[in-house]
Structures are given as structure tokens and as C-alpha cells.
Specification:
The protein has about 220 residues and is mainly beta. The protein is built from one helix and 17 strands. The chain has two domains: about 30 residues; about 180 residues, Jelly Rolls.
Amino acid sequence: MKKMQHRSRATSRLTIGLLTAGLLAAFSGVARAQIGSGWTQYKPNSEIQIEVHDKYIAYPANTTSINNGGVRYSNSGGVETYQLVNPTSNRVERRWLDDYGDRRQFQCDVMVSAGNNEKITQIFGGSNPHGPYILVGEYTANGGSITIPGNSHSLTVTGIFGKWVRMNTVHDKAKNITAVYINGRAIYTSGWGKSQTYYTKYGCYGTLSTPSAKIQFKNVKMFK
């Protein structure tokens, strides 16, 4: 009888341990999901845009390698690597061909390994006024940081060089909100903006102030 009781207690402890691990995994999954509820994941068409000597070139969405001027790009093992290696180029980005006037959410894991003052992602006005509405940038200070350049109302996340961080941008016209999240924490919020339509870009964009810049992405998702 004592042996059976001992075995029963051991089985109970194992069951509780498995349930606890399962709950932790479930909560971890919730924390890593998109921000908010009611979103539907989808995959819009896209193209990779680069600039070399002031000339803009577009590559098909399924391109896996680019070596042109100061641009390097690769897509391997689920990781996209965007690099600028000299000042002859100032951008290599994926542009979602999905101009919208309602709402979108962009989600990714991003890692910055080198660079200074490069843009990681943009919400870009697709109609008048045309141009970047929100820019998310990386900087070398404090072990690498992410913030909204030139905006005193945004928070700064530090110590990000060489680490994967989760980034979400939420843009919703009905709720009149634009928000940027890093690891589930809002670092910036504002209104919808003045353009009627917008689109999303991500990659490595900006004039080099360091010898090179390297930004990587994985688990990229779009929601609407």
C-alpha cells in the first residue's frame, strides 16, 4: 500500500508539472501573438526595393539573394537579412503592395547587429500627403536601441543589439490609432494620420553613418 501511495504522489507531481508547463507555454503563446483581438492573418503581395547610386530597382517577392552596389539581401532558413555595406546605397526594403484605408497590423521578430540611425519599418502615406508617417529606427546608444526618431513622445527600448525582439505596428482608422509595440510594450501611440491610404515597408533604410548596417527579420506576419 505504501508503494502505491508513493507512486500515486509521484504521478500527481508529474501531472501537476506537465499542466504547469502547458499553462506556461499557453501563456507564452498568448504573449507572442498579435496585439489585440479580431485580427485575421493574411499574406499580401510584395516586392523588394533597393537604391543604388540614386537608382531605384524592384525585385520579385520571392527573391532569395541580392548583391548590388552597397546592398546585400538574403532569405534563408526563414530569416531575411537586409544589409547596407557602403554609402552607394541607402535602402533595401520589402514593400507590401497592399495600400489600405481601414486597418493593418505588422508583426515580426527583428534583430539589429550593426548600424546607426537606420529605419527598421515604416508606415508610409500612399495618398496625399504622400510620404513616411511613422518611422521606427535603430541607434547604437545603450547597447543598441529602438525608438521613433525625432519624436519626444516615444519611449526607447535599449540593449537590443544581437537579440531577437518582437515588434508590432498597429494602424486602425476606425479607432484613430497608430501604435508601435516592442515585446508587447507600447513605445508610441498617435492618431491615424492625414493620408487616406497607407502601406507598410520593412528592411534597412537610411544614409550610412557607420561602415555597415545589418537588420534581420523572421516570423513576419500581416493582419487585417
